[in-house]
Amino acid sequence: MPQRPALFPVLLAGATLLLVVHGLGRFIYTPLLPWLVEDGLLSVQQGARIASWNYLGYLIGALLALRWHRVAQIRLSLPWALGLHILSSLAQTQAESADTLSALRLLNGISNGLVFVQAPSLILEWLARQQRVSSSGLVYLGVCVGLVLSSVLVSLSDGLLVDADRWWPAALLSVPLAWWGWRQLSQLDLPIETAPDPTAKVPSGRLLDRASTPLFLSYAGAGMGYILPMTFLPMVARLQVEPGDFLVDSSWLVVALATLPSPWLWNRLGAVLGDTLALRLSYVAQLLGVLGALLIPGAPGILLCAVLVGGTFLGTVLLTQRLARTLHPHQGPRLSAALIALYSLTQLAGPWLTGVWLGMGGSLHSAFWLGAGALLWGLGWMLLVPRRR
């Protein structure tokens, strides 16, 4: 009997790539933003607009992944996406204007969207071939470690680096990690796709049906619901928490630490309860977290939001991706890309609407009501998704 291949190196490689593009690429901007504002490089409104450019890039990357969804196409485009991440990250260290940084964050978002869809999709197809799909959620541990690492890098470099130089630690660390992660995934044993048998019944290519449409609509709410606290919580903490409180400088660290057990926890809950029920619970937890920041004054509300949103949003991602493949197993990578594209479209709207709200005289704190409404929308549609194991 042939020996089953080891999971750990494959999952570690995928986790490493997600650490690079999501932790050191996308979300390091969140703890950096207050310092970039304090340095005088950006205003709060400019920071919100730059975040929107990054999310637009993420949408473009996800749409490209929807176009390049076959295994052979992923093998070709994934290393180019990682190269784009490296180049844009290094160039950010020289960005002294908001316009330049906007353009670079757009490129960084494109690479992030491609890698975030394609790397887990490639691994999920490999796991399905090994009949070990239940381990798929563990690849998202890379995002968790990346969030912690981004917080640590920003904290350690404070006082040593200012302005655009604050990007250097993440840019330099991305180079060896991206190279190693792709080197491992490039060796995955996946069959070359062949032309379908013309006499065989061709599975439906529809992405939307009675089972999947509510899942898509629900996931749209998840994208807008989580992105506001995940982008602006450190700024809100500085505005809402008493000076000298631990959370003024460390709210992002709390978010990052809360994410660490979340892929294992939600992966396990999905296996025990079924992905549908576990996904509903994840929406409830995120909604309570955002409401905590809105309704509980000061540090307790910020802490509750950091723990519940940080500990849940990745669970929503991994459970949705796995449930979608259960509904349409014959088009896993394509379905994953479509979901991420929708997710990125609605999360793009979050910072943009926040910028509009600030321009109208609204507060950053009150903009969180948009996130709460989006999560309530997502929970409502999630109740219509059929339960599957």
Automatic annotation (TrEMBL):
Key words, A-Z: Membrane, Transmembrane, Transmembrane helix
Membrane-traversing stretches: 47-66, 137-154, 216-234, 246-265, 301-319, 340-360, 366-385
Gene3D superfamilies hit by this protein: MFS general substrate transporter like domains
The protein's name: YbfB/YjiJ family MFS transporter
Membrane topology qualifier: Multi-pass membrane protein
Entries under SUPFAM superfamilies matching the protein: MFS general substrate transporter
PANTHER family referenced in this protein's UniProt entry, alphabetically: PTHR23537, SUGAR TRANSPORTER (PTHR23537:SF1)
Protein's cellular compartments: Membrane
Lineage: Bacteria, Pseudomonadati, Pseudomonadota, Gammaproteobacteria, Pseudomonadales
Domain of life of the source: Bacteria
Molecular-function annotations in GO: transmembrane transporter activity
InterPro entries noted in UniProt: MFS_4, MFS_trans_sf, Sugar_transporter_CS
GO cellular component, one term: plasma membrane
